[in-house]
Amino acid sequence: MSGKNPKLKFDAQGLIPAVIQDYKSGEVLMVAYMNKTSLKKTIKSGKTHFWSRSRKKLWLKGETSGNFQIVKGIFYDCDGDCLLVKVRQIGLACHTGNRSCFYRKLK
Fold first, then answer.
1. In 3-state terms, what secondary structure has residue 38?
2. How confident is the model over 46-90, as pLDDT tens digits?
3. Residue 2 scores a pLDDT above 80
């Protein structure tokens, strides 16, 4: 992250949504949640870490699947309440076996 001490706004559960985007194509791969610890781990390791709301624990993307995300940049929106993480996706991003979690069209 560039800039000094960004004013990020985590929700009441201590989470902030993170949109994960392919750094070359711009394709949105997935949306997940980070807390302060997972964000720090992501910055330090260069691989995405998230907070699982269902399992109530930290997880490293690719830890079991091998489908890691190598961080190329982390941005935050004008309100400081959402992150955009640009990554180099290794393998598939979605647990369904699709490259992106956004493979279904509503309209």
1. helix
2. 999 999 999 999 999 999 999 999 999 999 999 999 999 999 999
3. no
Close Cβ partners of 72 (under 8 Å, ≥ 6 residues apart): 23, 86, 87, 88
Distance CA 35, CA 14 (A): 6
Phi, psi of 11 (to 5 degrees): -75, -175
3-state secondary structure of 44: helix
Report the alpha-carbon distance of residue 98 to residue 31 in Å, rounded. Answer: 14
DSSP class of residue 18? E
Q: Which two tokens stand for residue 103?
A: 């493979």
Measured between alpha carbons, how far is 22 from 91 in angstroms, rounded to an integer?
A: 12
Strand (E) or helix (H) holding 22: strand 16-22
Residues 6+ apart with CB under 8 A from 3: none
Q: What DSSP state is assigned to residue 9?
A: -
